[in-house]
Amino acid sequence: MLSCHHLVCDTWLIWLLVDEFRQNYVNQKSLLPPLKKTYAEYVQWQTQLLASPQGEQLWAYWQQHLAGDLPVLNLPTDHPYPPLPNYQGKTYAFSLSPELTQGLNALTKAEGVTLYSLLLAAFQVLLHRYTGQNDILVGSPTTGRSQTYFANIVGYFVNQIVLRARFEKNAQLYPLFKSSA
Fold first, then answer.
1. What values do phi and psi take at 142, rounded to 5?
2. What pLDDT, in 10s, does the model give residues 119-170?
3. Domain boundaries along the sequence of the chain
4. Are 161 and 142 spatial neighbours (Cβ–Cβ below 8 Å)?
5. Residue 31: Cβ within 10 Å count
6. What is the pLDDT of residues 83-108, one digit of tens each?
7. Fold exhibited by the domain 7-36+96-181
8. Which pTM value belongs to this model?
């Protein structure tokens, strides 16, 4: 059994550990190369990056991108919130048909975007449609393992970023997502 707290590991690390356990179990001895970098060196690299001119540009970008009053998503709900939270959420499981998946993959290639970006845009349009809001914020986890020499280090490298979509008033977006039925 392997137990890792989310403060010290991300999904990438879990797959890395499972693969290393498998290699060591099969070979009965460690054949893993020594690490080239440590998590402390990663923190030092990030600190230096943020203190550099590039870090100043990144800071300015986020300051501008998230300036002013940030909108609160006002989704219509069927039921008011209970006075005391009960944390009894629900899930809805579904799957996409192979034909729809093929169509989405074809569209991503035609538009030169990732499937994640396409589905995120569709989700943002859906939120816009249900709320009527023209400024939508969605939080998304992103990997922090952008440097290959930090790829095999134990640690939590996930960053949460805000993805903002601004819609022009009266934008004609909905015909793209209408059902053919």
1. -130, 155
2. 999 999 999 989 989 999 999 988 778 888 888 888 888 888 899 998 887 6
3. 7-36+96-181, 39-66
4. yes
5. 10
6. 888 888 788 999 999 999 999 999 99
7. Chloramphenicol Acetyltransferase (3.30.559)
8. 0.70
